User: What shape does this take?
Amino acid sequence: MAMIEFKNVEKYYGDFHALKNINLQIEEGKTVVLIGPSGSGKSTLIRTINGLEQIQAGDLIVHGENISKKKSDMNLLRKNVGMVFQHFNLYANKTVLENIMLAPRIVLKRDEKENREMAEKLLEMVGLADKGNSYPDMLSGGQEQRVAIARSLAMKPKVLLFDEPTSALDPEMIGDVLEVMKTIARDSDMTMVVVTHEMGFAKQVADQVIFMADGTIIEKGSAKEFFENP
Ligand code: ADP
Ligand code: ADP
Assistant: This one.
């Protein structure tokens, strides 16, 4: 089943044509990496998937729901689709554990004990089991981003979007974040869409690589096709 399907999607910012006739299917459990020059529409494309940007024409179906239709349920969409940003957007006045537990408590009304256990398990998965009681400003950027990933996963989304998740990090922090993303890609059935300049990551874990330029998809193929052809 396609988890995400773009059919003839058009996106404008005013007069500016940002996405031009996008056709794309992303199967459940796959990892797709978007590459291409700055300004080519990568960020716009992934922001349409969680409704942060509206499309003006075509159909965009996410987990069986046509989100281009006016009456589509945006709350359900936001539950199904998590997003990790370049800047981590953690709550500065809450501990790491509280950051992770907040949305499941409020939105999903998850039982407090279960919520805590899950948050602790996720912290362990991202290599930060000992940081639950720390505040974000006590962490490095790479640690903050791993908390942000754990926080997204706590909502058990069907789809996880990453918009240049390592671009704001010091080089020595990038590896740890990419390792966590690789673990999720390999060991879970998460559907992941990742905008990144990290070609090593694309090569190792992408099921599909999409090259964008000027608002269109210029090329798509397996990582193998992409990186091994002359
Ligand atoms: P990329 O992620 O590939 O760098 P973006 O999706 O961020 O590209 O941007 C694609 C184009 O759309 C750029 O020319 C950018 O200036 C423009 N754009 C992005 N967001 C907006 C906006 N909110 N209003 C107007 N133009 C925008
Ligand atoms: P990034 O490349 O990290 O996505 P950008 O500088 O492209 O950052 O965009 C930062 C923010 O500014 C985004 O929210 C984007 O939608 C908005 N933006 C980008 N280009 C324009 C534009 N030409 N007009 C208005 N807003 C824009």
